[in-house]
Amino acid sequence: MSVQEYLEKHLLSRRIEEAVNAAVRAKAPDPVLFIAGHMRRAAPAVITRVRARQILDGHGAPAVEVELHTNKAVHRASAAGAGALEGAAADAAGGSERRKILARAVADAVRVINDKVSEALVGMDPQQQAQIDQAIMDLDKARHKAELGANAMLAVSIAACKAGAAEKEVPLYKHIADLVGKSATTLPVPAITVINGGKHAGNALPIQEIMILPVGAKNFEEAMQMGSETYHHLKDIILEKCGSDSCNIGDHGGFAPNISSISEGLDLVVAAIERAGYNGRIKLAIDVAATDFCVGKKYDLEFKSTKKSGQNFKTADDMIVIYSQLCSEYPLVSIEQPFDKDDWEHSKKLTTLDLCQVAGDDLLMSDPERIKRAVSEYTCNALVLKANQVGTVTEAIEVVKQAKDAHWGVVVSHRSGDTEDSFIADLAVGAAAGQIKTGAPCRGECLTKYNQLLRIEEELGSEGVYAGENWRTVSTS
Ligand code: PGA
């Protein structure tokens, strides 16, 4: 098409005149910039290409980063982890072999994105998230998204979501809220990691994390202040009680003192909350990650010890007794993954006791089919949403809706060794999750999400509502 034909087709002289008139009406301080902005908006955004590259995640392992180009701007996103099959193989391997497997998986994903995905998305409107996600899904028909890898698909989908928000000239959380079909004003309660154990630390503590939930804060900013003050008091207490080498940090930035029981860890955290002066305003949560120490049908609470006492090889019913005691002795309000990923029976038994929130991580794998079963059998009462297990923004929104429809809690979660992309912060607000879990107030890949939530709260101003005591029941309607 010649320029003349283009000008006529798009009625450009009329649009230029409208832009000039608008600048006059607006008394624009800089008419050139105003008219340029006006004209820019007049051209609809279309995706012009998608480029991927390998970057490093928080573990120093290869991850996929995507740049989605439109005719107006470039939007960047990344997601942790490798493709499903390679990810599993990498998990089974160790050290440099693991890194090589991940690097191969990421290199494959980069190739597919640069060729097939880019070709499929060129020409699409970035505001049409569902259509874009469908086009991505159509390219990967393999079970569990093994061909492209859910993480690679997610990076493309997030980049498109950012482009859609930019085109609408609204913040990302607002665009996500529009996709969900609600208004975005609720800031989540942060589940802040303070102690690491399990596979995330070299100490003898079997469970993966102890977290604090500042439900009594008046807003998100105060919640983070209460959380980080408590974190620093905890450091002092650990120093006093366990010595300076106990202040090393684990995978999510929580301290990894050399303790071996859950109650030892909870005692340290309760002491820190008291010293910080937040008694009653901060509740506790644990991520047991029990799949990691399930042996046969039993749970080896000494799975990291070389010298086993034999006293700590527990049945699932023993574990229920332990959890019940912990809930009565501590302000423990949430237990994540209390049993093996396929132990539906005992998870249900614990949930039915109604002691606290029971959150499904490995149990659900953010998989709609598993969530459906857990809802109908009442196997748990909260979803841990790991978007890179789902694959696309549209599917992540769908599983949040599924959980909300069942009146479950929703914990939007990072991955260990996440990238510095802060998308899940916007997702937690846009989807009104009520809870976000993204590590300690330490380590860049954790802070980037918390800091984004601080910005969102500032931007929302008086419209922003901190979920606070309603952390389990924020509604999406
Ligand atoms: P991941 O879990 O190690 O599977 O990423 C992180 C978490 O559950 O907090």
List keywords for this structure.
alpha/beta; three-stranded antiparallel β-sheet; Enolase_C; 477 residues; magnesium; lyase; magnesium ion binding; 17 helices; globular; single chain; binds 2-phosphoglycolic acid; 3 domains
Secondary structure topology:
Layout: H1 3-9, H2 12-25, H3 31-42, E1 47-56, E2 62-70, E3 74-79, H4 84-92, H5 95-121, H6 129-138, H7 150-168, H8 172-180, E4 186-187, E5 189-196, E6 209-213, H9 220-242, H10 262-276, E7 283-287, E8 294-295, E9 298-300, E10 313-314, H11 316-329, E11 332-336, H12 344-353, E12 357-360, H13 368-377, E13 382-385, H14 387-390, H15 393-405, E14 409-413, H16 423-430, E15 434-437, H17 444-460, E16 465-466
Parallel strand pairs: 4-16, 5-15, 7-11, 11-12, 12-13, 13-14, 14-15
Antiparallel strand pairs: 1-2, 2-3, 5-6, 6-7, 8-9, 9-10
This protein binds 2-phosphoglycolic acid.
Residues 287, 361, 413, 415-416 line the site of 2-phosphoglycolic acid.
